[in-house]
Amino acid sequence: MRRIWTLIAGALLLTGAAPAEPARYPTRSILLFVASWCAPCHGELRQLPAIAGGAGAYRVLVVPVDRGRATEAMLRGVPIDQVWRPDAARMAEVRAELLAKTAGLPFSVAIGGDGRPCALHRGGMTAASARGMVEACRG
Questions:
Q1: Residue 110: which CATH number?
Q2: Residue 2: inside a domain
Q3: Where are the beta strands (DSSP E) in 36-138?
Q4: Residue 1, domain member (yes or no)
Q5: Per-residue pLDDT averaged across 19-42, rounded?
Q6: pTM, whole model, 2 decimals?
């Protein structure tokens, strides 16, 4: 068995294949970017169970873009395992890489199995739009 692994490692070195980099974002997920000042975002959160149903095997994660008491109140009804809160440095990257692709909220990004964005949705998310995003990622 050890010889097989040695041969595989040697082949990878010869072909110049590099080890896979870690996923940039939570894999197989739809990130819903929300803010306390965004009225349509509040409506979107009320539809979270239906959106999650439309997303099928993809997780739906709520990503708050602001902080404070109003944000915490808005997230009170969201299950803790459906909230993604990157630290400040990571959130700066998220803003530069993902939020820069839209002029406003609501905004959602589907992340494929490789941890990279595979579909974008501007406007309020529905079960149907979640299904469409997942299909776009598979195609």
A1: 3.40.30.10
A2: no
A3: 59-64, 107-111, 117-122
A4: no
A5: 88
A6: 0.84
